[in-house]
Amino acid sequence: MTSICYVYQVLTIMETKLRFQPVSHSWVALHPKPKGVIQFIGGAFFGTFAPMLFYRYLLKYLFDNGYTIILLPFNFTFDHYVEAGFLIKEEYEIIPELIRRAKFAGYDYKAYLSDRNFSWIGHSIGCKYVALLEAFSALPREPKQLEEVIRDIVTKTSNPSEIAKNERKIQTIVQNLESLINDLKQRRARATQLIKYYLGKEQDTYWDIIEDPSIDKTYFKNLFIKGQTSILLAPVNSGTDSAIPKFLAKFIDKLGWGVKPTPQETFALIQATNLFNLLGLVSFKSDKLAKSTCEWFVNTFKKPPTDLQNNLAGGHLKPLGIKLGGYVVNFPDSLPIIESPQRRNAELEIYVGKLLGALEKERLS
User: Mind listing the domains of the chain with CATH numbers?
Assistant: First the structure.
C-alpha cells in the first residue's frame, strides 16, 4: 500500500503543470511537494508586464526541480526603499495563504513553516530590491543607532555643502525605515496567528505578541530576510539617468525626486551592513548593462566567494526565455535565439539549480 501511495505521489508531481494563481499582489505556483520556495522579481519592463510569460522557461525549470514559485510584481518607482518594503510585506501576506491553499489541495506544506526555506532570485534592477532587503536585515532597531548608520551613509555619498538637504534626507530615510519596521512587526504577528489558525493550533493574544520581547519566531526567524538565500542574475544598481534622459535626470535629482537610494548610497548601505553571506551571483559575458555592478560585488565588496559566482555566455536578457514546441526561444541579445532545452539548461538553468543547492548547503552548515 505504501509503495502504491509513493508511486501515486510521484506521478502527481510529474503531471503537475506550472500554473500561476493570484495571491495578494503577486502570482503563485504551488508545488505539490516543495523542498523550498523561490520568490522571483524580474527587471523593469519584463518584470512588470507578464513576467510569467517572459521568464517562463527559467521558472518552469525551478518548479520542476521542486520549488513553489512566488512571482513578485515589479512596480516602476523611483523610491526603491518603498518597493523593497512592499516585497517583504508581500512575504508576510503570502506565507499563511500558501499553507491554507496547500492544505486545501492536499499538498505538502512543511516547507512553508519556516521562512528559512524561502529564497530570492532577482534579475536586473529587481536585484537591487533583494539587496536592499538583505541590507535592512542588519540595520539596528534602536532609533538612535539607526540614525547613526543612515547619517554615516548619507554623509559619505552626498555633497557636504548641502547640509540642510542632507539632514532632511537622513530624517526622511530614518522615519520611513522606522515606520516599515513597526509595520512589519504587526504583519509578522498577524501572519503568525493566521498560520496557527490554519494549522489548528492555539493562537496567542494579538497584543501580547506585539509587545512581548520573546515573540514567537517559529515561522519567521528574522523581520527581514536574514538567513534566506538569494541569487542575483545580472544585477543592475542604476540611478535616475537609466530611466529618463540624462539632462532631465540631473534636474530631477537636484530637486530630490530621483532614485532613492542612489547607486552610491546603495553600495554604501550594502558595505555598512556587511551581510550577504548566503548570496549567489550570475553575470553574463556580453552584458554591458550589469557589468559595473557585478564588478563591484566581485572586486570591491569581495562577495560572494568564487564558488558562488558564475560568469556565463549570453547577454543581459539571458534569463528570459519561452519554450515553443521542442525549442526554447531566447531574446536577441543571447545567441542562438532558438536552441534545444538541453543546450539552454547547460547555459543557465543548471548553474542556477547548482547555486541554490550550494547556498542551501551553506545555510545549513
Answer: 16-141+226-364 (3.40.50.1820)
